[in-house]
Amino acid sequence: MRVTATTQAPRETSADTVVVGVFEGEDVAHDVQDGLLQGLIESGEARRGFRKLAVAHAEGKRWIVLGLGERERFDAERARVAAATAHGRARELGTETLCWEVPHHVGDAVVGGLVEGTVLAAYRFTRFKSDGNDDDGAIGELLVSAHHDVAAPVERARVLAEAANRARDLQNTPSNHMTPAKLAERAEQIAATSDRLTATVEGRAQIAARGMGAFSAVAQGSDTEPALIVLTYRGAGGTAFAPALGLVGKAVTFDTGGISIKPSAKMHEMKFDMSGGAAVLEAMAAIAALELPLDVVAVVGATENMPSGHAMKPGDIVTAMNGTTIEINNTDAEGRLVLADCLAHAVDLGAERIVDVATLTGAIVVALGTTYSGLVSNDDAWAAEVQAAGEATGELAWRLPLHEEYADLVKGRYADLTNAVEGRKAGSITAAEFLKRFVGDRPWAHLDIAGTGNDTGKAYAPKGGSGVPVRLLVTLAERVAASA
Prior knowledge:
- This protein has helices at residues 36-43, 76-92, 108-121, 151-172, 180-191, 204-209, 213-219, 275-289, 335-348, 363-368, 380-393, 404-409, 427-436, 470-483, and strands at residues 2-6, 17-23, 53-58, 61-69, 97-101, 141-145, 197-202, 227-234, 245-255, 295-305, 316-319, 325-328, 354-358, 373-377, 397-399, 417-418, 444-448.
- It is of the alpha/beta class.
- It has two domains: 2-146, Leucine Aminopeptidase, subunit E, domain 1, CATH 3.40.220.10; 162-483, Aminopeptidase.
- The strands form three sheets. An eight-stranded mixed beta sheet has the order 7-8-10-9-13-17-14-15, with helices on both faces. A six-stranded mixed beta sheet has the order 1-6-5-2-4-3, with helices on both faces.
- β3 and β4 (61-69) form a beta hairpin.
- α9 (335-348) packs parallel to α13 (427-436).
- It is elongated and about 80 Å long.
- The two termini are 34 Å apart.
């Protein structure tokens, strides 16, 4: 979908369909001939309540009158939902070019929300449809009409939404096609888009040579070659690379659970276990596209978790990159093993502040559903920054506590740590407590997206991969750059 800002009035644009939003207690700002749109409201056919809509025809265009609800409640997230609602109706109507008339007296965040909601709602995954890859009925262009120049927020929103949609492509691709090698190939494609980006990919032998015994243990069960992917972005302009931000992603391209094998029901959804890595890669692409003025390092651990004659076994003890020994008491708690070594590697690469992203625990789905990602952090200020980025993007994060008693739970009997706490106590928190041992004194935040990574039910990402938290990570990078 092409996205363009314009100061032309909607009736003057090439759009065949125009969306006009109306707040509670307000009237149509710019009506068409004979006051048709206002007449729809007064007749009750169109209503000002949030997401209520009606369609009219005038001046050679379709006009969608969309209720925006109370003005004081209309924030960027409600703009996304409203835009997704309008997109759905416009698509049904056969729209080719859609124009949003930006409501008067709203800020750039709302303008961006209208773009993000439209572009995200337009997403379809059709690669494996036998009738071709084309998205029949897709709206080809979005115009954003305002009295003043809104090109900057429109362009930023386009970059963020398209990055999220690319992450959704990676998520939705089945694991026989989305292997660790394919993720590595995508990282190299991203690096080729900017001379500020560099990608390096290491395989099984190099991972082992780095002393990444935890990552290697997960990978050893599969004949498919794992990949340690590092993307660096040099945006700060200095001669030396000094990553103000480190992004770490879990990318288990298929998770059977290993020898601690999962139940067959819904195991096909385990292709989504690489969602954290997908989000990190596409966030880096967006950071580069926006040319943000900071250095960033991204580390993604990509592997399958498979049962085999050479798979890790419950009771095995491995040594992570930082020297920590780990009892593997459940081979289905593999994500934290991959992340442990990737976090330690990000520290070695100089990351000043770190966020890791993973579909880590089923427990977080029980606790928070699909509304919030779980957030655990060792630093209050850094946690607040991550939460603020989530609020701004609608990719919400709810902070869970750390405590000495949780730390005691992850202590091993025969090694420093265990990867599976007995009694299933505080599953999401103890998983994060495990990860905390690999970041040293760096401010660190962990995002568990097992509930928000796919099938969220949101108006703009109801089914399949959601692209969470690409937009959060980019917004966080902007905040870090602004504070430098």
